[in-house]
Amino acid sequence: MIQDFAGVFLELLCYFAYICMAGKFCKEYLEISQRNEKLFAVFGFCGGLLIHAVGQCYSIPNIALILLNHIFFIGLILLLFQRNTEKKILAASLLITATTLVENFCISIFSCFMLFWRHRVKNIAVPFLGERETNLIICVSFTMTIFVIYLGTQYLASIFYCKTGKWYILLAIPLLAITVVTDVANWGASNGILVRSGGDMGLYYDQIFSHAGFCVMTALSIFGAGCFIFGMNKIYMEQKKSSQYHCQIAAYKMLEEQYSQSERLRHDLKNHIIALLGLLESKEWEKMESYLKNMEDSAGLDAGEQITGNRVVDILLYQKQKIAERKNIIWECDVQIPKMCDMNEFDLCVLFGNILDNAVEACERLQHKEQYCNQRQFINIQSGVVKKCFLLEAKNSADMEDKHKIGFTNKGNPEEHGIGLLNISDVVHKYNGVMNIEVQNGIFTISVLVPLCTSAHNIKQVI
To answer: Which of 34, 66, 388, 409 has the most CB atoms at less than 10 Å from its CB?
Structure first.
């Protein structure tokens, strides 16, 4: 009796630990107040026990209790957590799917081991799992589930950020479908629908075959769910990168055209000077003013005075500087592009453009926060040659707190989350370089180091 009580107590303790870990998982990717966090733990634990107790008292089918528990869990997350509804549904779906699959896998595989041990070691011809063994297996399955959910809090950041609400729902529906199929199969097994040996090998082997079959099914489901989740995430990110890539091509073509217009102006400068001198001598001031205005508009003279060694980068930096000034952001720039730099102009624009776009957005977000409204934000970008490498370093005001969320948090448009840093990373890797990101004392720093030697396959070879 004491052993039975100890087993039940241990099972309840594991269940409470599971509820707490589920709350931590949701808190990692959603938002919740401290009060609601405590309410989630209390209601999640008590609600689960109440559903189980009602099922025992009124002989409700197990499948109905399981589905009711899932619905209650989803409702609790929707009620107590913040963020958009679609993201909360995805978080609940991931938790329910992980719990269902991992628990059933662990129960099946450990039941096989326990039956085998009782049959071979204890020499029991037809072994059955008693209450003590069942409680132990359930506790182990809860422990494994807690561990899997803990891993989810560490490695699923990209799943929850950089997505639209529709994408969250499309990901959640198949996961819930897998859960329902597994629950129905589990209910069938509990009602005698087992994988049998054909009747010739006895009840022991029937149990082994049934648990092994369920173990294989849940293992394949876990593998399929994992491939689906990360595959969908990979496809989405690649599509977004491709979309932004085409936008950057258009921006680059615009800069190239502006540069070509400036070159055409310089080529015809002698003729323009002759025409202007004629207007000056005849004192036709209005025509002279109109002529100069046409020159400015047609040739894009407003291209800035920054001298980097690359005309297209000059134009890009000038445009970003004007944007920063309009938003009252302090602009500091000291950029030099070495002649021996092998980066083509398009990749340079991708690199500088994404870094500066992210910096401007970060500063603008701070301006809308009350605690920063009286502070002027800044952007500082520098580049040059260090030993045999091209070094680019940019700093800007930021409010990001920890490194693993960089590129995925606080962005106004969820569809473009993190894509900029991925594009920067692609360019850096293309030229065998390295990238480093730091956030310290409210300053975001990104450093890019690219070897100037094209034959270098490792950055250490040129440092």
So the answer is: 66
Amino acid at 24: K
Q: Which helix (H) or strand (E) holds 250?
A: helix 203-267
- On whether the CB atoms of residues 11 and 48 are closer than 8 A, the answer is no
d(CA 30, CA 23): 10
Enumerate residues 6+ apart whose C-beta is below 8 A from 202: 126
Q: What is the CA radius of gyration of the chain?
A: 32
3-state secondary structure of 229: helix
- CB atoms < 10 A from the CB of 101, how many? 26
Residues 179 and 73: their CA atoms lie apart, in Å, by 14
Q: Residue 203: exposed, middle, or buried by beta-carbon count in 10 A (0-12, 13-18, 19+)?
A: middle
| Alpha-carbon span 23 to 37, nearest angstrom | 7
- Residue 205 CA to residue 125 CA, distance in Å, equals 10
Beta-carbon neighbour count of residue 142 at 10 Å? 23
**Cα 398 to Cα 236: distance, rounded to the nearest angstrom:** 27
Quick: pLDDT tens for 245-302. 666 666 666 666 666 666 665 666 667 677 777 777 787 788 788 877 776 666 554 5
